[in-house]
Write a structure and sequence with these properties.
Number of helices: 8
Helix content: 10-25%
Number of strands: 14
Strand content: 25-35%
Structural class: alpha/beta
Oligomer: single chain
Distance between the termini: 22 Å
Strand order of the largest sheet: 6-5-4-3-2-1-14
Shape: globular
Order of helices and strands: EEEHEHHEHHEEEEEHEHEHEE
């Protein structure tokens, strides 16, 4: 079956790392910056087309992000992995569940196991708290799957020793918390219009691409455009780092909207 290509709109809900920028109790110059692009909520994107909208990850800033972008409805959530900066906003799905009922979520088995333990009251089948959000869990493996009328290709990467899912939708790929990726998974990233990938900081990190590793990855994958996300204050000031990046490589920032 031939699927017509959709015009996808990507909204960067958050572009920060696990503690956001500014980080609590930090006197780092980037944390003290007045520049709006240096203020980063936890990483997440909203993908919308036609009358559909899905988010990738639902972190602790989810409520704030939905209010800021005035999002009236989402149709589902794709999770990359179980860490709190990507999942802690699960309870804030409630208002959308009031509208659509069960919220479809897409995640690997390890992430589902973690959420079932941490949010037992959401997943419980007995004596459910009446105000709890309702979710419909869809376990993702290696095979492509559909969200409404769009095919999603899972991309398996490693966040240190933790397996993490990235996602390719049409010619856009979203990868976060990447440290290593196999040649087989890189093959799924050919002919990209847009690559969104983490670039944590200048110094090397044990579980994330630093800036140099992210740039080397871009050079290998050769997307038309790249946007770096999951950024810590240790990367530096947005405006200063942006000037040093190659052509068609950009630092994303909270609220940025792009189309493809």
């Amino acid at each position: 079956m031939k699927i017509d290509k959709k015009l996808l709109k990507i909204t960067f809900l958050g572009t920060g790392t696990s503690q956001g920028i500014p980080m609590i109790a930090s006197n780092d110059p980037v944390c003290l910056s007045k520049e709006v692009k240096d203020k980063r909520l936890r990483s997440s994107v909203l993908i919308s087309w036609d009358n559909k909208a899905y988010v990738i990850d639902c972190g602790p800033d989810f409520r704030q992000q939905m209010l800021r972008e005035e999002v009236p409805l989402i149709n589902g959530v794709l999770f990359t992995h179980e860490h709190a900066d990507h999942t802690a906003g699960l309870d804030d799905l409630r208002p959308f569940c009031y509208i659509i009922g069960e919220m479809p979520i897409y995640l690997d088995q390890k992430t589902l196991d973690s959420l079932e333990q941490r949010f037992q009251y959401i997943f419980s089948k007995e004596n459910r708290y009446p105000g709890a959000p309702s979710v419909q869990a869809n376990v993702v493996g290696n095979a492509p799957f559909f969200i409404d009328d769009l095919e999603v290709i899972p991309i398996n990467v490693m966040h240190g020793k933790l397996p993490v899912l990235g996602y390719r939708i049409q010619n856009i790929a979203y990868l976060t918390d990447v440290k290593t990726i196999t040649a087989e998974e890189k093959d799924k990233l050919k002919s990209l219009d847009i690559l969104i990938v983490n670039a944590l900081r200048i110094e090397e990190h044990p579980t994330h691409f630093n800036l140099q590793e992210a740039l080397e990855f871009v050079e290998e994958i050769q997307p038309k455009k790249t946007y770096f996300t999951h950024i810590s204050h240790k990367l530096g000031f947005h405006n200063e780092i942006s000037k040093k990046l190659p052509k068609n490589v950009f630092l994303a920032f909270d609220g940025l909207k792009i189309e493809s």
